[in-house]
Amino acid sequence: MDILKKIVILSTSPRKNSNSNALAEEFAKGAKEAGNEVEIISVIGKKIEFCRGCFACQKTGQCVIKDDVNEIEQKVLEADVIVWATPIYYYEMSGQMKVLIDRLNPMFTKDYKFRDVYFLAAAAEDDKAVPQRAIEGTKGWIECFDKASFKGYVFCGGVTDIGDIKEKESLKEAYEMGFGIN
User: Fold this and answer.
1) Considering the entire predicted model, what is its pTM?
2) If both were cysteines, with which of 53, 67, 88, 163 could 47 make a disulfide (CB 3.0 to 4.6 Å apart)?
3) Cα dihedral across residues 84, 86, 91, 95: positive or negative
């Protein structure tokens, strides 16, 4: 079977076996079963420094900081689909996700393959409005890439402890969203 699309999932929870990563895993499972190539990149164990705001990357195309973001950036540039997965902290994306978004600034001047961007989130609070600020922040990143567009999201609220997501309908939604990519 031919590979349909190359998908990179950026799992930005600092916690192993997190609920947002469970969404990422289900999305990946569905996407793989649909014939796509999928890689989940977790921030756990990665060295990711803060952006210094020097904008050297806009002149050189490379960040002055040499850490794990350089490899992540290359994978994002080569992907057809990007999926962000994050826990929601204080009604916003995780700090790890925001730092990674900022550090992907060198991509602004480069050619990129991705066209579709998805968003997965989990939170302790169960109100449907909880992920909206994080979604808007993600859309702000997408607006910097005029060939890309936001394709959808899955949110699971009411999950705090590791494994709380186990019986939630959102896992099925994430699987189906991934399976629907072709």
Assistant:
1) 0.97
2) 67
3) negative
